[in-house]
Amino acid sequence: MTAETSQTLDRGLRVLKLLADTDHGLTVTELSNKLGVNRTVVYRLLATLEQHTLIRRDLGGRARVGLGVLRLGRQVHPLVREAALPALRSLAEDIGATAHLTLVDGSEALAVAVVEPTWTDYHVAYRAGFRHPLDRGAAGRAILAARQGLVPEPGYTLTHGELEAGACGAAAPLVGVTGVEGSVGVVMLSDSVPERVGPRVLDAAREVADALR
């Protein structure tokens, strides 16, 4: 802590982070021990966060993340999209294929940013807001591989015809970005992904990850 920071706000944010990392919630005593402060301080923090619907307490008194964080979360996609666009534009123009940033949304993969190349005669139409199962398509498979610690040796995932007949894709997961689970990829009309595409997608994913840190 420094003179310019707020100790109370710092503690409140630490409470939210602790609750976000558990599925079963935490008691006042558990939070008190983890924060190293007395129970009275924790009660006040929880009461304030609960007033803003950022946490909720069940009948047993365990605190959990509240629905209020969803309203804050809705503002994350535009910020992530803006940070990713330069790398996506460069990728789309370089490869001549539609580039996209995909994030996890529940059990689905959600395209939050899409850039189409400007110089090609034809390319795959792919729109922001497009959803598909995480276990189908390069974007989702790359995310699952990273989640399971099973990213292929090259660092990217290739697929063909899983989401659209005649289309193939390449995607690489975002690595080292706290709180963001996603991938960067391209989709193109081809029988197979050209050899240079995978490494280029991997570079773009690293660029986006750097922009988000």
TrEMBL record:
Species: Streptomyces antnestii
Name of the protein in question: HTH domain-containing protein
Gene Ontology MF term list: DNA binding; DNA-binding transcription factor activity
Entry-linked SUPFAM superfamilies: GAF domain-like, Winged helix' DNA-binding domain
All copies of domain HTH iclR-type, residue ranges: 6-67
Domain IclR-ED: 68-213
GO BP terms, alphabetized: negative regulation of DNA-templated transcription
Recorded superkingdom: Bacteria
Organism ancestry: Bacteria, Bacillati, Actinomycetota, Actinomycetes, Kitasatosporales
InterPro entries membership: ArsR-like_HTH, GAF-like_dom_sf, HTH_MetabolicPath_Reg, Tscrpt_reg_IclR_C, Tscrpt_reg_IclR_N, WH-like_DNA-bd_sf, WH_DNA-bd_sf
Gene3D superfamilies linked to this entry: 3.30.450.40, Winged helix-like DNA-binding domain superfamily/Winged helix DNA-binding domain (1.10.10.10)
Alphabetical UniProt keywords: DNA-binding, Transcription, Transcription regulation
Coiled-coil residues: none
Record bears the keyword Transmembrane: no
